[in-house]
Specification:
42% of the residues lie in helices and 19% in strands. By secondary structure, the protein is of the alpha/beta class. A 5-stranded parallel beta sheet has the order 3-2-1-4-5, with helices on both faces. The longest helix is centred in the middle third of the chain and has 17 residues. Bound molecules: 4'-phosphopantetheine.
């Protein structure tokens, strides 16, 4: 059975992330979305809130599971029995960091390879950071996140 891990901060999950989840879930028997629980990185949503939003927006995807993780990604991948780590690439500007991360992970543990999936063009400009910025000023985020996530952002920013 092939198992893949799609890690990230998902603060919050965007339509770009959902696009990668949907497409990569078709290439593997089981896809585990790994939500980083990182105390040093300030996030708007708690890890439980991020996991809950991901569960909601992926509930129609049978082979997708959501888990949180601490520490090294390769340890999480090992624990999940994953053969692949999935990362989305939006633009060439993502590439340097992603390549460095993929090579570091491979140096730490060669039992897992990173697969890059190009983000669909309509989401290539999207990031959780810009979505939060727009949401914080009460802007229209309906083209960027699922309705459920939009509601959660509105609650956070009281707008
Ligand atoms: O959504 P993000 O913030 O771009 O995801 C980054 C993530 C979670 C994939 C990355 O920060 C990560 O893997 N963190 C876990 C710590 C780790 O394994 N670091 C070594 C790889 S350089």
């Amino acid at each position: 059975m092939s198992v893949s891990v799609y890690p990230g901060s998902f603060d919050p999950v965007t339509l770009g992330h959902i696009d990668i989840i949907r497409r990569s879930a078709k290439m593997t028997d089981k896809l585990i979305v790994g939500v980083l629980n990182n105390n040093s990185k300030r996030s708007l949503f708690t890890v439980d809130e991020r996991v809950e939003m991901l569960k909601e927006v992926t509930k129609d995807m049978e082979n997708v599971m959501i888990k949180s993780f601490d520490g090294l990604l390769v340890d999480f991948a090992k624990e999940c029995g994953a053969n692949a780590i999935i990362r989305g690439l939006r633009a060439i500007t993502d590439f340097d960091y992603e390549l460095q991360m993929a090579q570091t992970n491979r140096a730490l543990y060669d039992g897992v390879d990173t697969i890059f999936i190009p983000t669909s063009i309509e989401y290539s400009f999207l990031s959780s950071t810009t979505v939060k910025e727009v949401a914080s000023f009460g802007g229209d985020i309906s083209k960027f996140v699922a309705p459920y996530v939009e509601k959660k952002l509105r609650e956070k920013y009281n707008n």
